[in-house]
Design brief:
two-stranded antiparallel sheet; single chain; 18% strand; alpha/beta; globular; 3 domains; 277 residues; Rossmann fold
C-alpha cells in the first residue's frame, strides 16, 4: 500500500507501516532515523496529519516551541496535529485525592496508591538510570494496588508486570543479557563521550550521559498550557480528545493509542489542533 501522507514523530516501537514514521533511532525498517533536535526533515506544507505521543515532554521547555513550530511548518493548511503526553492535571488530582485520604483515613491500598502517584509525578523527571523507581516498583512480586496501576499506565505497564511475574531466568541467561545490555550502552556512550569507555567513566559522567540520553521528562503540561503552546505556534481549534476518538480518518485502524482494545497511555492528555487554512 502507498504510504499515507501522515507523519508519526518520535514513534519508538509504536508505529503503523502505512505512515511515515521517524525517530531518533530506528527500531524497524518502517522507521526512519532522524535527529529531531535539528528539526523535522520534510518540506513545508507536506503532511495532512502529524502525530506524536510521549514526545513533547522530553524536550526542554525552552525548546518545545521550536519543535511545535516544526510540526506546524510541515503540515498542509488545515492539516491536523495530534499530541499525546502525560497529563499534569490528572496526576495532581490523583495526588490530592490520596493525600487527603491518607491524612484522614489511610489504608494499605490508599498508601500504595499515594506512593505510586508520587512516582508518576516525579520519577520520570529525576531518575538517573533506565526505568527509575517506577520500574523497581512494578517488578515487585506482590502489589496491593496492582489494578490501580494497570488502569493508569495501560498496555505498557501491563506488559512490564507480565514480564516481572515470569519465571526467573537462569544465571546464564541473566549474564548474557547483562553483557548484551552493557555492550549496547557502552557503544552509545562511546559516541556521546567521544569514545570514552564506560568502564572508565565516573559516576557523574554515567548519570550525565543517561540524563542527556532522552529518557527523562523535561517538562509537564496540562490542557491549558498545551493549548496555549499550540496557539502560540499558529494552531487553531484546540480540542481535548480521548484515545478512541480523533479527526484523523479511520483512526482506530492504526492502533497508535489503543492496542487490542487496551489503551497505551490511558491517563494521558490527548489534544488535537489544526493549521489554519
Amino acid at each position: 500500500m502507498k504510504k499515507l501522507n501522515y507523519l508519526n514523530v518520535g514513534c519508538g516501537n509504536k508505529f503503523h507501516k502505512d505512515w511515515v514514521n521517524v525517530d531518533m533511532v530506528s527500531s524497524s525498517p518502517h522507521v526512519q532515523a532522524v535527529n529531531l533536535l535539528k528539526g523535522i526533515p520534510f518540506p513545508d506544507n507536506h503532511f495532512e496529519v502529524v502525530y506524536h505521543s510521549q514526545v513533547l515532554e522530553h524536550f526542554p521547555k525552552e525548546k518545545a516551541q521550536a519543535f511545535i513550530q516544526e510540526c506546524f511548518r510541515v503540515l498542509k493548511p488545515n492539516g491536523l496535529l495530534r499530541v499525546v503526553l502525560p497529563d499534569l492535571e490528572n496526576i495532581i488530582d490523583e495526588y490530592k485525592k490520596f493525600l487527603n485520604q491518607n491524612l484522614e483515613n489511610p489504608t494499605p491500598i490508599s498508601e500504595a496508591n499515594y506512593d505510586w502517584i508520587m512516582l508518576e509525578m516525579f520519577d520520570q523527571t529525576v531518575r538517573n538510570y533506565g526505568g527509575g523507581q517506577m520500574a523497581v516498583y512494578l517488578r515487585q512480586a506482590q502489589l496491593v494496588n496492582e489494578q490501580y496501576i494497570i488502569d493508569r499506565i495501560g498496555f505498557v505497564g501491563s506488559t512490564i508486570r507480565h514480564q516481572a511475574q515470569q519465571t526467573t531466568p537462569s544465571l546464564a541467561t541473566q549474564l548474557k543479557k547483562a553483557l548484551t545490555d552493557f555492550t549496547v550502552f557502552r557503544k552509545a556512550l562511546k559516541t556521546a563521550w567521544h569514545k570514552v569507555k564506560y568502564i572508565f567513566a565516573s559516576q557523574e559522567a554515567r548519570i550525565g550521559a543517561f540524563r542527556l540520553g532522552g529518557e527523562v521528562h523535561q517538562w509537564m503540561y496540562d490542557r491549558y498550557s498545551l493549548a496555549r503552546l499550540l496557539s502560540s505556534c499558529g494552531f487553531v481549534e484546540m480540542r481535548v480528545k480521548n484515545p478512541f476518538e480523533s479527526d484523523v480518518p479511520k483512526w482506530s485502524e492504526y492502533e497508535l493509542d489503543v492496542k487490542n482494545g487496551m489503551v497505551y497511555d490511558p491517563t494521558s492528555l490527548f489534544m488535537e489542533a489544526r493549521k489554519k487554512a
